[in-house]
Design goal:
two-stranded antiparallel ribbon, mainly alpha, oxidoreductase, Cytochrome p450, about 5% strand, metal-binding, globular, single chain, heme, 15 helices
Length: about 375
């Protein structure tokens, strides 16, 4: 008898929950979208390349559509107008990030720039980037590094001329060296370093894995009650790559802290030094911990290497397929720069055609076809396009 009472109570509770959920759903004026399945929602419609699956769905349901990923409602914007709504008009409303395994395991428990939720820490991190790390003055001060590394790559290309080469390796190396010197202060990943913490090729492999794992659709994120199963194995891989990066970053931070302690009146030389200065700043609204410093460093390294390399590779690939475009670019360089000196960063504003080539390259081959997901902080009412 008691068992029957408990069973009836449980059924009543489930019924009330579903009823309330249905009533609440009816009050919402959601964008159009496919009807979800129980438990999995619309995950059955997402293939191996999610951005292509979403593009096909957008052709049917429009540039603003509603999907259900497991227990998580998702709104997808897939047009220029929708991008402006989410990233500009309603930017503050969609500034936060959802809870994901990637943010927990590869973002030092949501303390990096990418996965930090909206709040005092997020606002502080954004201010640090704008005022300290990426200020025009600071980026300009690193121009000599970019010049030195570019000339080094050109010398290497000249030495290897006449034999088959893989251009990606050269571009990847020069980008990694530039970012390493700007962020870390030296080439921690140079092939000539004895007993490196991480070998250059291994580090590049780690970056590839980091990019992949931060862009996958992890089923455990959208169906939380089965997350412990790690059905796709992504969480296991996140833990492995996170451990490898942490070993390297610990070495970097230790070396910088030792240098700061041993040299009286030490002046910051790189972005790690700046972060350590900010970490010790008593006026910060939210104290920055050591793991936060490592999270920032990882974002700077990852965000500045692979993205730049891949974009340049695609640009060259497209130019080789379009000789007439390549010819016009060379003509602009000859007219603006001439053939008696190297192109300098100050020349870029005077090279509109080459700038157009880069913009078109990023349009055709975006680094991240699907942006990092955002979390709505409150309901949006009315037509956001009006």
């Amino acid at each position: 008898m008691e068992t029957q009472i408990w069973s009836a109570s449980l059924l009543l509770l489930v019924f009330v929950y579903l009823l309330v959920k249905t009533l609440r759903r009816e009050k919402l004026n959601l964008p159009p979208g496919p009807k979800p399945w129980p438990v999995i929602g619309n995950l059955n419609l997402i293939g191996a390349l999610p951005h292509r699956s979403l593009h096909e769905l957008a052709q049917k349901y429009g540039p603003l559509m509603h999907l259900q990923f497991g227990s998580k409602p998702v709104v997808v914007g897939s047009s220029v107008e929708m991008a402006k709504v989410f990233l500009k008009t309603l930017d503050a409303n969609f500034a936060s990030r959802p809870v994901t395994a990637a943010g927990k395991y590869t973002g030092y428990n949501y303390t990096d720039i990418t996965w930090a939720p909206y709040g005092p820490y997020w606002r502080q991190a954004r201010k640090m980037c704008l005022m300290e790390l990426f200020s025009a003055k600071r980026l300009e001060s690193y121009e000599y590094i970019r010049i030195e590394e570019m000339k080094s790559m050109l010398r290497k290309l000249y030495e290897d001329s006449g034999k088959p080469i893989l251009l990606k390796d050269y571009l990847s190396t020069v980008t990694l060296n530039v970012i390493s010197r700007m962020v870390l202060g030296k080439r921690y990943l140079d092939k000539d370093i004895e007993n490196p913490v991480v070998a250059p090729q291994e580090f590049k492999t780690m970056l590839d894995e980091l990019f992949l794992l931060n862009g996958v659709l992890n089923v455990g994120d959208v169906i939380p009650w089965i997350s412990f199963l790690d059905l796709q194995g992504y969480v296991k891989r996140m833990k492995i790559v996170s451990k490898k990066f942490d070993k390297f970053l610990e070495h970097v931070v230790d070396e910088h802290e030792e240098r700061r302690r041993s040299i009286e009146g030490y002046v910051s030389r790189d972005m790690v030094d700046v972060l350590l200065e900010l970490k010790d700043d008593p006026t910060l609204e939210v104290k920055m911990e050591r793991h936060g410093v490592k999270a920032f460093i990882l974002d700077l390294l990852a965000g500045g290497t692979e993205s730049s390399t891949v974009t340049v590779i695609w640009a060259i690939s497209e130019l080789l397929k379009k000789p007439e475009t390549f010819k016009k670019a060379i003509e602009e360089l000859d007219r603006v720069v001439g053939r008696n000196r190297w192109v300098e960063e100050k020349d870029m504003p005077n090279l509109p055609y080459i700038q157009a080539i880069m913009k078109e390259t990023m349009r055709l081959h975006p680094i991240a076809p699907i942006l990092t997901p955002r979390l709505a902080r409150e309901d949006c009412k009315g037509n956001p396009l009006r």
